[in-house]
């Protein structure tokens, strides 16, 4: 018996696969390598080069590998780009989830952990987001993640699918040097790439209503996130009960300027970031409570901000050249 991880060749997905392997699970990965990397999948883990939109291929994979549960991370994740590419985003994230659920139903697999997002909340008018905070996504990406949660809910009603969705915020760091964030849109790789190239990192907006004028966000280490997926999946396999959604948050925001200061400490590069204009739609603060996940999934922030930055820089230095 095994666990299928869709998107398991990506930055987050590959960390999730490693966590499952370390916990003694057999895994198989389905990934079309549109943003993932084949070398991120460890030796001994089955790999299928396919899109989740391919119902027949995914169904065969589920049957051939005797899959017990699915962790669904595959999708198009760039909120800003999704505004320019809404049809592509819906195809990958909504049609992809429909296709995956269709394959699971055909193969008799009835357990899934879904990778959701803080983007379902939009710009919440609260200091601390909880699972009861109203959802109001402001991008096609956020909308598709919310629709994905609805699909799981409706599948539960229709044929007893057992599921939970993990809503997470800003995932950073590296657990091992050979896995790193290669996104062209995420803050950590953008800042570190700028430093490697001799450019000054940029902050978008310095006049927000926060302690230092820059946006405050929830940053969590990818290894902590990966462990939460393992616990949630094991709970479903063992017949335990989970809530339909969990926030994986720190409960304590970190500002963009604090990130910059931590990067300077980790890299030894002394710099003063440039302050640019605000980006449209960037809320001043989005921070979530992780209390519910702590209760049911043993969720905790095991890594400090310096740990997050140091591990990301170490992986960047080890595997990328200027």
Automatic annotation (TrEMBL):
Its EC number is 5.1.3.2. GO terms for molecular function: UDP-glucose 4-epimerase activity. Pathway: Carbohydrate metabolism; galactose metabolism. InterPro entries: Epimerase_deHydtase (IPR001509), NAD(P)-bd_dom_sf (IPR036291), UDP_G4E (IPR005886). It catalyses: UDP-alpha-D-glucose = UDP-alpha-D-galactose. It is an enzyme of class 5 (isomerase). One of its GO terms (biological process) is galactose catabolic process via UDP-galactose, Leloir pathway. Gene3D superfamilies: NAD(P)-binding Rossmann-like Domain, UDP-galactose 4-epimerase, domain 1. Residues 3-249 form the NAD-dependent epimerase/dehydratase domain. Keywords: Carbohydrate metabolism, Isomerase, NAD. It comes from the Bacteria. Its cofactor is NAD(+). Belongs to the NAD(P)-dependent epimerase/dehydratase family. This is UDP-glucose 4-epimerase. It comes from Aeromicrobium endophyticum.
